[in-house]
Inosine/uridine-preferring nucleoside hydrolase domain-containing protein
Amino acid sequence: MPSHKIIIDTDPGQDDAIAILLALASEEIDLLGIVTVAGNVPLALTSRNALMLCELAKKPETKVFAGCSRPLVRPLVTAEHVHGKTGLDGANLPEPTITLQKQHGVDWTIETLLAAEDNSVTICCLAPLTNVAMAMVKAPEILPKIKNIVLMGGGFFEGGNITPTSEFNVYVDPHAANTVMKCGRPLVIMPLDVTHKALMQRKWLDALKALGTPVGDATYGMLSFYERFDVEKYGSSGGPLHDPTVIAYLLQPELFEGRQVNVEVEIHSELTMGMTVVDWWKVTDRAPNATYINQINADGFFALILERFSSL
Ligand code: BDR
Ligand code: CA
């Protein structure tokens, strides 16, 4: 019996791909649908990639909806320099044969939440928060339906990865992130401060390949491509695997540690646009609005992914 009803909001992206496959491989998760957004690459490509991943996982019945094609206020910034031209470079997957659902992703999110019981659906955000913020603004009555929001975004002690102060997902749509951070529902944040402690090791990548399955081959290929950018940039022994922390948190929360703190998003200064300002030391009287995660049992995290992928 699944214990988590979730919506995944995503811009695949190789690390999004691992998160989606991890959710599809896990019996504890009831994936109500996937909503795509413009982010790592434009919307047409993030949507295509999501469809390809559902087919790769042999779950073609998964519903995929296209959401917003640009951020709420600012022009779209993409990250082909990290993810390649398609967003899933290195995966070598065939074009999808399944198609997108007709409804807009934001409208489907609203409809799905309104039909749900109070406190029953977890929203897993792996991308700029445009769709989720749009849904909250269009239909604030969805808020009580949300059990929690677990999002990959932000960074404080590590600084940023797209500007010196700002992490990509928050930077691309800071106004949306600001709306979500202030929504009043329980929020768990997986920032760079934790994902930079989840570094892929060669041995683990080799173990993916050794699965000898289409999922093993595709994930080995895409992650070998994806990690080259961060390995060169940070001079680390492996690249960080950001988005799957969100799904792993639902499956094994004991792998993570964090603190209940106040987190606010900078939306005024061009210099620090999209910075997440974290009151880690509680030096203000701003009320805590999020569980900000900063520790991970990385061995346990990578073992979990490998174990689940062996069933796909
Ligand atoms: C985040 O930005 C994207 O490039 C990744 O998919 C992840 O969601 C990391 O900053
Ligand atoms: Ca992402």
